[in-house]
Structure formats: C-alpha cells, structure tokens
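Deliverable D4.2, example record:
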Amino acid sequence: MVPLMKKTQQFLAGLKLPAQDNHALAPSKKRFADGGQYRIEIPSVEGPRVFREVLAAAKDLKVPIHRVSQGSGVMLLTNAEVSEMARIGAEERIEVCLFVGPRATFETGAQASSTAGKVIGLQHRGADQLVFAIEDVRRGCELGIRSILPADAGLIWVLNEMKKKGELPKNLVIKSSVTLPAANPATARIFEGLGVTTLNVPTDLSPAQFGAIRQAVDMPIDTYIEAPDNFGGFIRYYELPQLLRVAAPMYLKFGLRNAPDIYPCGGQLEETAVRMGRERVRRARIALDLIARYAPQARMSPLGSQDLGIPEV
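Output generated by the structure prediction step:
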C-alpha cells in the first residue's frame, strides 16, 4: 500500500468509517429489531386500485409484503385516495410509503430537463417549494400515513426536526429516495445523522461496496434487485445471497426492466400501473424462491413489525 494512501485509510478508520470496501465479504451481524435480515418492498404502487391488485397477486403467489411505496407523490392523490391507501395498509399491517409531491422535475425551472442539469434530481427549488413539500408531508400524516419518501437532504433534515418537536409523528419513517442515493460510507453516515430511517443506495453497487456502507451505518439499506431501465435496468437475483450476507438488514425492491416510466401516474396510466404492480410481485416470488434455494438460512422479518411505518387510521 502506498504510504500516503495508508495514512488516508487510517484517518477514515479514526472517524469509525471503513477504510476500504468489504472485499472479504465479511458477513453483517446487524438485523432488524425483530431479528430479520430482509423485508419485501413493492415500489410504484400508485394508488388504491394498484395496491389492491398487488395484494391479490401477493395472495396468489404467496409473497409476504412488508412495504409498498409510491412515486408520484402525495400531491397527486386525493384525500380519499390517501385515506383508502392508509386504511388498506392498516388492515393488512403493511407500511405505505408515499413520495413527497413537488419536486424539480414537476416545477417551472428548465435545469432539471437539461442534459447536464439533471444533477438537481428531485430536490425542491427555493423556500416556497420547501414549504409546499412540507405541506405535502403534513397532509399525508393527517390522513394516517406514517412513511414518506423525500429526495432532498434539506427537507429530510427539516422533517426530522419537526419529528423532534412534535410537529410530525415521532414514528414517521423517512425513507431516502433512490434519486438521492448514498454511494459511499461517509455519505451514508451523513444521511443517518440527518434522520433517514431507511437508506436507498445506487442500483449498481458491488457486494463489497454494499458491505462497506453496512459497516458505517445501522439503518436498513433499500436496494433494487431488479432496477427500472432509467436506473440501469440491472437484474441481480443471483447476487441476493451475497447481498444479504454483507448488507443485512435490507429492504428488497423489485422494479421492472423493459417497462415504461409512469411518473406522474393517474387514471390515464392506471391499467399499466396495475399490470406492472402484479408483475413486480411475481418478480418478488422469483427472488424468494432463489433465497430458499441458495440462502435458506436467511431470515425474513415477520409481517407487521413494530418499526414499520404502518398507517394509523
């Protein structure tokens, strides 16, 4: 090892950060509070009908679901739709995670649609948009939602401060978005300090890189086992045993390759969203079968665990 590089690695170690990726694939001893190593999340559940269809598919295919998430935002659901999703989640003991609505790609600025300017991601532009985003979260919580999906670091910090001061429910889950991913252990540590409850990471990290992030933080890691095309389209089912070994506890998410980007979703895309939701459940069944074959010792969390953001209605 080059002496100067060794010095840098020692400095990182002094910060209680891993000095290199987990090349040895040393196993994670961390778990969910219930002892589980993994949970199943079905993303892009864009409304009550899609939710019901996902649950029907889960029953048919015997797929336990711990969390569903939605990407169009609270702002594009009516009060009745948010309430219905909350009611279904409460009845089924499933976390319902809704995206924060206003974002750079929905607003009037041009940078987010430019080739180089896409780096802004789904952040909130200006103080007014920050207020709008907070109002979106307030409305969701008032209607029973206890899990939200922000894509702006400043918003995450404010929401966590609001939780501390009783302005938002103390049990509100803050799930960082894959559009605001933590790509290394230091960034993951920052996100944990901001108040992130579960952490999204880039879709293309190696098992060794997953393992390094796991060594730096205790919160669960979210990852796409099959990523949508606009996030790389990676299909990583056979990597599941290694990922569970080094990165537990994890939420396993199932996007779809060769599928349209449906955000923002509404009635004009509902049939497509339903078909995609059912297929995501089928993909989860494939993953569960593979885990049973190659990692039978891996333990899934029981359904309805206390730390899930299950709606309160």
